[in-house]
Amino acid sequence: MSEEKNKNNKPANPGPNSNKPFKFNMAWMYGLIIVMLLAVFFTNTNSGSNKELGWSEFQKYAEENTFSKMAVNLSDRKVIATIKPELVSAILGASTDTFAIKNPLKKAGEATVTVIIPSVDKFTDYYNSLVLKKEIDATISYNEGNSLLWTIAIQVLPIVIIVFIWIFLFRRMSGGSGGPFGVGKTKAQLYDKSSTQSKKVTFKDVAGLSEAKQEVEEIVDFLKNPAKYTDLGAKIPKGALLVGPPGTGKTLLAKAVAGEADVPFFSLSGSDFVEMFVGVGASRVRDLFRQAKEKAPCIVFIDEIDAVGRARGRNPSMGANDERENTLNQLLTEMDGFGSNSGVIILAATNRVDILDKALLRAGRFDRQINVDLPELNDRKEIFLVHLRDIKIDESVDTEFMARQTPGFSGADIANVCNEAALIAARNGKEFVQKDDFMNAVDRIVGGLEKKSKVTTVEERRTIAIHEGGHATLSWMLEYANPLVKVTIVPRGKALGAAWYMPEERQITTYQQLQDEMCATLGGRAAEELVLGKISTGAYNDLERVTKQAYAMVVYYGMSNLLPNLNYYDASGQDWGFTKPYSDETATLIDSEVKRIINEQYARAQAILTECKIQHMALAELLLEKEVIYADDLEKIFGKRKWLSRSQEILAQQGLVDPEETVAEKTEDSGEEK
Length: 674
Ligand code: NHX
Ligand code: ZN
Hints:
51% helix, six-stranded mixed beta sheet, alpha/beta, binds zinc ion, 11% strand, 5 domains, disordered C terminus, Rossmann fold, binds ligand NHX, 26 helices, single chain, disordered N terminus, five-stranded mixed beta sheet, Signal recognition particle alu RNA binding heterodimer, srp9/1
């Protein structure tokens, strides 16, 4: 299949094998299989449709003068007797004609039976006595029994054929660049002017990513007028690495480069190099670069390059990744191998630069890294505008507001939100997609499907309300905790209830912020213990998050007093296995520090909850009654927040809390929404 594609792409360059007279391909394979099947079929029918008779049964027939010929097979004590045509149906129970059809190798009107005889001598005696006694007119013939030879041949032939094919495949694999069925050919997809690409992507289709776009525009300029750079003695870069989390538009950016530069564009994924055969990956790399050089100037885009580019193992005895390492070595050589002015620019995308082999990143290979980050507020607004182009919306939809509601969303997530909102609106039979469809879509994507019908007992509901009330109380009382948006005890996805926060979009986090966040996360479990005196399994997700955070604080951020300013991050992306970068004593210390941090925050959570017991219980009651409550309901219970400053400011700024608005109005509002 891939062979055909390649041919379509480059009719000027037939493969290296096409001028050989004998071309091994699928047709040959099918031919061989059919021949073998036929052989098996005929050998089977030959013996299968012959009736086999027992010795005494045969004697009975022979004495009735049934046979016209008897052929004695000397080697395997067998006689093949030909029945007189007029008696066939009596013995075989079928007319000669149908028998002849069944066995096309036999002449019409000729039917045989086979019999195993005690021995050739005995049979000869018996025949002679029959000829003497009764008047039978069967002729007898002896043959050397080529049937034995034939059987051997049948048994040996397939093996010979298999060996033949095996040798053939091996020769092709080690020798030519093709390999059997094009295994060693690159799987790269080529897009160029001739290929009927439905829609060309340009920079206009890429929303946000202004810095990355700028970098990439330079590459386009290299391709369009290389002379401008080479005249000054500059070398054209060989490759650029697009780095960023999934869904941020790395592939889109690469496509836009190709669209703008108007040059051929090879697109493939790092995993396309990987195959179970030895040497195939390297061979594919070679083939890719050969094709690219023919098409130069052009762009080669390798998506998910970490599949091949992962750092080579440190202990060679492992040997498990040999094949991938060969592929990587070939890639490294090829990138160095072609002159820098050959006009092949390699773009690669990955979300994990830290695990890539350092040799790949050195200057002369991927000499520039372009960061494609998660979109910030203004970028998200632009992305929303792009995706809303095809959606019928009414004036209630405010992109500014939605961009604020979706911190941490990638471009792909936003596309998903828009689509989901349209689906929700359509489900409700609306003519236009409205603001609350978008809000529901965001909730849906963050939290999963709402499950109003989930059966919960009264007691469970009380536990859930107290748990969520604990989170809410703490995040209200803690200065640096994320501002609360709403609290709900309606099950959604895996969760039975949730407190929704609006995370600040900050670049760095302080120790105090981490502490307060952990304290608020532990608030659910602490509330259960304080109020109910029983704890439940439900908090495991909270505990998991807190434990990971505390571990990161100790091991990555150097934030513990006993292990200050230390970082044990391992960049290779492999598990430490037996070789942790710290001693056993340090491991014990890490464990105890993690425990200490969590215990401190848990105690703090309990202290605050005891202090605010009245408000907490009021909150739980309100939750049980209304199921969903918003930030301003909390304000009614707690009064104005002590540190309005930070969090409330953000909420007001994001339009979630309007300080002017009266409480009564807002309550109506939220009642409407649910
Ligand atoms: C269970 N679910 O697994 C039941 C059905 C303690 C009132 N047996 O902490 O819903 O126990 O503050 C993402 C988000 C699993 C993934 C939440 C995976 C929750 C959630 C377990 C509330 N809110 N726990 C919480 C909860 C549960 C769970 C999750 C997840 C509960 C708690 C889930
Ligand atoms: Zn919780």
